[in-house]
Amino acid sequence: MFRQVAHRLLTRSTTNYTTAAAATIRRPYSTDVSVDTSSGDSDFVEAWNKVAPNIDPPKTPIQFMEPRPPTPSTLPSKLTVNFVLPYASELSKAEVDMVIVPATTGQMGILPGHVPTIAELKPGLLSVHEGNDVKKYFISSGFAFVHPNSYADILAVEAVPLDRIDPAQVQKGLSDFTQKLSSASTDLDKAEAQIGVDVHSALNSALTG
Amino acid sequence: MASTAAVPFWRSAGMTYITYSNICANLVRNCLKEPYKSEAISREKVHFSVSKWVDGKPQKPTIRSDTPEV
């Protein structure tokens, strides 16, 4: 009985969809599909023209969407990075050679042609390498998405260039939280103190490293 | 099927990811140098009013604010 269920899940449906519906059904790797959004749903436009021939049909939301940039067949030479914060956009479609992000599994380097990845970031250093320039930011936490078309989206809650960090505050914070960690009683207090120790030691190593 | 993925220490202590992320961001903001620090802190101030609804009617609202009451 289970073999039949698995077989049905694996066979793809062969129904034909209208253009508008085809643009919205899920596909693996939607970067392979380029959506023609200029004309809109042809059935809707025909029906509209029958009823109101002198008025242009209204645009549907999908016509306003820019299709995702397609995956090139040869390896692109540059990585396109979108580095955003909740209140500002640090880098928008910036073409760079490499980005090193502080993932929870360690420092991860992203080059053009990197395998599609979703990485959770821990407090640490982000460096953007373009030719011989390196720009470094300290990130508080966030996520990094690498897409098949060599676009990388880096989302962080707080990102500061290193020269805006005050080393005295960092040291004070580190010693305060280390002390709180040893005197913490409840699980939640211990977790907060541990987070404090982690963030301040990451800040410390970012400043000194 | 028991999930064997290791949970981060903050989740096993009952904290959600959003709380963790906000705590990290607040700690980083507190370590900034002066003009940037006050900009960052004032940027993150919130002021809002919350009311619970019972039987389709809002109850008395509570105001949560980072700006001191005048």
Number of strands of chain A: 10
**Helix and strand sequence of chain A:** HHHHEEEEEEEEEEHH
The backbone outline of chain B, from C-alpha atoms, is flat
Instruction: Describe the main β-sheet of chain B briefly.
Output: 2 strands, antiparallel
Counting DSSP H or I runs of 4 or more residues, the number of helices of chain A is: 6
What order do the strands of the largest sheet of chain B run in, or round the barrel if closed? 1-4
Low-confidence stretches of chain A: none
Helix coverage percent of residues of chain B? 40-55%
Number of distinct helices of chain B: 3
Largest interface: A-B, 26 and 24 residues
What is the quaternary state of this protein? heterodimer
Broad structural category of chain A:
alpha+beta
Class based on secondary structure composition and strand pairing of chain B: alpha+beta
Organism (chain B): Tagetes erecta
Main location (chain B): mitochondrion
Pfam family, one (chain B): ATP-synt_Eps
GO molecular function (chain B): proton-transporting ATP synthase activity, rotational mechanism
Task: Please tell me about this protein's structure.
The complex is a heterodimer of chains A (about 210) and B (about 70). Helices cover about 35% and strands about 30% of the residues of chain A. Chain A has about 210 residues and is an alpha+beta fold. In chain A, the strands form 2 sheets. Chain A has a 5-stranded mixed β-sheet with strand order 2-1-9-8-5, with no helix packed on it. In chain A, strands 4-3-6-7-10 form a 5-stranded antiparallel β-sheet. In chain A, a hairpin with a 4-residue loop joins strand 8 and strand 9. In chain B, the strands form 2 sheets. A two-stranded antiparallel ribbon of chain B has the order 1-4. In chain B, strands 2-3 form a two-stranded antiparallel ribbon. Chain B has 3 helices and 4 strands. Chain B is α+β, with helices and mostly antiparallel strands. Chain B has one domain (about 1-65). In chain B, strand 2 (about 55) and strand 3 (about 55-60) form a beta hairpin. At the A-B interface, helix 5 and helix 6 of A face helix 1, helix 2 and helix 3 of B.
